[in-house]
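Look over this today:
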Amino acid sequence: MRTRAWQISARALTAAVALVAVPIHAQTLALTTSTAGATAANNNQTVGWRFDVSGAGLTVNGLGWYDQGNDGLSRSYQVGIWNAGGTLLGSATVPGGTAATLNNGFRVVSITSFFLPAANGYIVGGLNSTESTDQLLFNSTIATIAGVTFRNATFSDFGLGFVPPTQNSVANTGFFGPNFTVGPTVVIPEPSTVLLLGAGLVLVAATARRRALG
């Protein structure tokens, strides 16, 4: 009985530590295309699309670029998300070739996740180039996940570099181009909290052992 009480306490401690340490890797594209549309020419400008977030908000955990033919990208692309005020919330470089994960036609890289609260006017954009041989997809049938509402295609002036693409396009459904993935919102405790939790569980286990032995 004494041995069993100690074993239960030790198992509880191990399970609690494992619960803190195990990350969640799910990546769901915010927008998917179901039919191919026209393809656009490449210019030295940032292109993208505006969207709204509703409900409880979203956790962004990846950024990507459209890979026509699923055969790898001809170059790398810088991709980011801005809020309505033009503040860059997160960005990453999607490498050329097939190094990035292929996810429903987009090459996606994982990033340090950040949260998008419910709000209107977010923009996801990526810096294109005349040197690219990758075509942009637009005027395609699209679908967005729950909590994301597509608004319109956007672009910047030529030659400005990586900037929020705030000008509205007449393209019906975007320039893809850029995309992003979302995943479950995971609260990761601060190191001090984890240490506190571990110390508390060790104390509980030690107390249970003493009682079992005494």
Observations:
- Residues 191-213 form the longest helix (23 residues).
- Residues 28-183 form a domain with the Jelly Rolls fold (CATH 2.60.120).
- Confidence is low (pLDDT under 50) at residues 1-24.
